[in-house]
Amino acid sequence: MNSSLLAPWLAELIIISYRSVMLENKKVDTLKPIPHLPVPAELASTVIIFGALSFIPGEGQRVATAAGWGLVVATLLNLWNPGGIAKRPLAPTSSPKTQTTKTR
Q: Do 30 and 19 form a contact (C-beta atoms < 8 A)?
């Protein structure tokens, strides 16, 4: 991995780990297999994304580093959840209402 991407990757890991511990302390119902640790998919997704950014050659590394820090900011602002569990759509609780028209 390129050294310019190491800092944003570590920052991303720290944010993910911090949130994992804080959610556990707040007793939020999560589907984590190991308490106080992030879901492995979250860590794997950061390795894949930042690893792919590290393959950008030459002058493109500036853009890749900016994109890496952008992902950190997006995670910090809850705009991106790396490896997050997809939320299932809720089933409708009532049947659709139909309109009946009265004829004379």
A: no
Q: Are the C-beta atoms of residues 9 and 43 closer than 8 Å to each other?
A: no
- Between CA 55 and CA 60 the distance in angstroms is 9
Q: Tell the residue number behind the tokens 């302390």, with chain if given.
A: 25
Specify the residue for token string 């119902």. Answer: 29
CB neighbour list of residue 56: distance below 8 Å, 6 or more residues apart: 63, 64
- How does pLDDT run across 53-72, given as a tens digit for each residue? 999 998 899 999 999 999 99
CA–CA distance, 12 with 77 (Å, rounded to integer) = 12
Cα distance between residue 79 and residue 69, in whole Å: 13
Closest alpha carbon to 48 in 95, 97, 1:
1
For residues 56 and 75, give the distance between their C-alpha atoms in angstroms, rounded to a whole number.
Answer: 22
- pTM score: 0.69
